[in-house]
Design goal:
Distance between the termini: 37 Å
Helix content: 10-25%
InterPro entries: Phylloplanin-like
Shape: globular
Mean pLDDT: 78
Structural class: mainly beta
Strand content: 35-45%
Order of helices and strands: HEEEEHEEEE
Number of domains: 1
Largest sheet: 8 strands, mixed
Oligomer: single chain
Number of strands: 8
Protein name: Pollen ole e 1 allergen and extensin family protein
Amino acid sequence: MLIVGLAAITAKAQSVPSIISSIQIRGTLFCTINGNINSNGTPTPVFSGALVQLQCGTKTVLASAITNASGVFIIPVNPVQFVLLSLQTNCYLFVATPLATCNSSLSANGNLISNLRYVESTVTGTITLTSTGFYQISKQA
């Protein structure tokens, strides 16, 4: 039932593998006020060592990863536990590490958050999601 539901949900997005072997959430976090790459052409430092969490529903942490030296994170998700549409509509990425950790001049009063979007499905059954772009929210309680 999971595979049928997932195939119906993502059929418009390209070919979906018949067996889903894994779901990965990937992205790069930058050390900027909004966690995104600068659009003004200046070099953008990455945010290494940041804790990025997959949160669903009412702030329930389901998985997490630490960004590497290049600011990249990969969060593996068990496809047996989640339906792709649920991940895209009920879950988001939350950066638990304060921005001031990567640059003391950045705000310490908020956290970064991002919705998820579908990127691709491979013939080996891996589905990739990524950030839709981070934005700052008030600190979570």
